[in-house]
Design brief:
Distance between the termini: 47 Å
Strand content: 5-15%
Oligomer: single chain
Helix content: 40-55%
Structural class: alpha+beta
């Protein structure tokens, strides 16, 4: 198994919700394909008379509800996920409204409704497949097959890993990671920071500034969410709950049940902002974008955590997320929601433990407990919208993370019999065995039960 070479800022990416695999990845695909078009010889660009975009798998099954066509068109018009405004996708709500795509010397009209929802069951290399073709009559001038592999990561047919630095402390499992920590007398955040700098070439100051920006975007999502009221976009008519939950927590002075209500409110807030298509951070995905912001907000506002502790906690959380992505998946279309909210809760438990000053063994135990109790979690969004059960599921993931931290930090470390590597292997195996109906297709589970009621 090759070592982890993922950057912190590839796992924690800023972009529009409601789904990293359905909005951030497709937006990047649209941007990339337009870049390829503009590199074509001028005669080909001038001859082009049609742009064909086809979605397969879960992108076809739930792409309409997730805003995939809007995200693709936004990318083709030049938007990048980490630089777009919070309401970028709202201008594309009318699927029949056409926009002129600049091919470089020629424009083509295109509307979200022109994107073709193709086969759900297919033979391509990943469930989330997109095919882009530029045509001149029957002649294909340019084609690229893209895969949105979860967490906003984008791959394509013929993709090769880009050149990057080698990690100072290479690891592919938690066992290997712990061996480095012991052999070099390092703390977990120090190892992840050293690897990040070696892999990306960034300085320590640049990494810290990047982490501070991530924290700020997460905080803003929570702030916006606990102030917003009304109904979320889409035909479900789902009422926002975060503001009410926050008000009740405040009435109870955030004590006793009020403390848990606050954690719920903060996770609901960021998740509702994601469902509205506003700016969030993949942690590790948009569908799970409420868990870690809810925990960060709780740590900062109620437990007195300093910015340095939050940075270090985020680096520890990323170590856990890297292992889950590397050895299983963070894509709901591949392993169900255990890879999204389950991994977010796992990262969140590690974040709390580490930010509170515990070393790697308690941090690992907290992460393992959180993951163990998300195994088998299906991805069954009602109507294909990241609303039911996704929003409340984020709140449950945040509370489970806190409880996993309590268990791990209260009991003797030696009591823990299952380590994180075993839990991740169980998640991967469970994902492989899970029926595709339960993996982001809205063909079973709560998605089906809701429509039958």
């Amino acid at each position: 198994m090759p070592p982890v070479t993922t950057s912190v800022f590839e796992l924690l990416k800023i972009g529009p919700g409601p789904s990293s695999s359905h909005t951030i990845g497709p937006m990047r695909a649209g941007f990339d394909f337009m870049h390829l078009i503009r590199e074509l010889p001028e005669p080909d660009r001038l001859a082009a008379d049609a742009l064909e975009v086809r979605l397969f798998g879960s992108l076809s099954a739930t792409g309409e509800g997730h805003g995939t066509p809007r995200a693709i068109l936004s990318g083709m018009l030049g938007s990048q996920p980490d630089a777009c405004s919070s309401d970028t996708l709202e201008q594309f709500m009318d699927k029949d409204r056409t926009f002129d795509l600049d091919l470089g010397g020629k424009t083509l009209p295109f509307a979200p409704g022109m994107i073709i929802m193709d086969a759900i069951q297919h033979e391509y290399a990943h469930p989330n497949t997109m095919i882009f073709r530029l045509r001149a009559g029957d002649r294909v001038l340019l084609e690229r097959i893209y895969y949105s592999v979860g967490g906003g990561f984008l791959r394509w047919e013929g993709w090769e890993e880009p050149e990057r630095g080698e990690p100072v402390y290479p690891y592919a499992t938690m066992a290997e990671l712990k061996a480095h920590l012991r052999a070099n007398s390092l703390r977990l955040h120090e190892l992840i920071l050293a690897n990040e700098m070696a892999i990306t070439g960034a300085s320590e100051e640049e990494v810290n500034l990047g982490l501070d920006h991530i924290v700020a975007v997460m905080e803003q999502a929570v702030e916006n969410g606990i102030q917003a009221t009304g109904v979320l976009p889409g035909p479900i008519g789902l009422q926002r709950k975060a503001a009410v939950m926050y008000a009740r927590a405040k009435q109870e002075y955030f004590q006793g049940p009020g403390f848990l209500k606050a954690i719920n409110a903060y996770a609901l807030a960021a998740s509702e902002e994601n469902a509205a298509g506003h700016c969030v951070v993949t942690a590790p995905t948009c569908g799970a974008a409420g868990v870690i912001p809810g925990i960060l907000f709780m740590l900062k506002r109620h437990m007195g955590s300093l910015q340095t502790e939050l940075r270090e906690g985020l680096l520890a959380a990323c170590a856990i997320g890297f292992l889950c992505k590397h050895n299983a998946s963070i894509s709901g279309a591949e392993v169900g929601c255990q890879g999204e909210v389950g991994v977010a809760s796992t990262m969140g438990a590690a974040l709390i433990a580490y930010a509170r000053g515990y070393r790697f063994q308690v941090t690992e135990n907290a992460a393992e407990i959180a993951l163990e109790h998300h195994l088998g979690l299906t991805c069954d969004p009602v109507g294909g919208f990241v609303q039911i059960p996704c929003i409340e599921r984020n709140a449950m993931g945040a509370v489970k993370a806190f409880n996993a931290y309590l268990i791990a930090s209260t009991l003797d470390e030696s009591y823990q019999k299952v380590d994180l590597d075993k839990a991740i292997r169980a998640m991967a195996q469970t994902g492989r065995d899970m029926s595709n109906k339960y993996k982001e297709t809205s063909e079973a589970g709560l998605a089906l039960s809701f429509t039958e009621c």
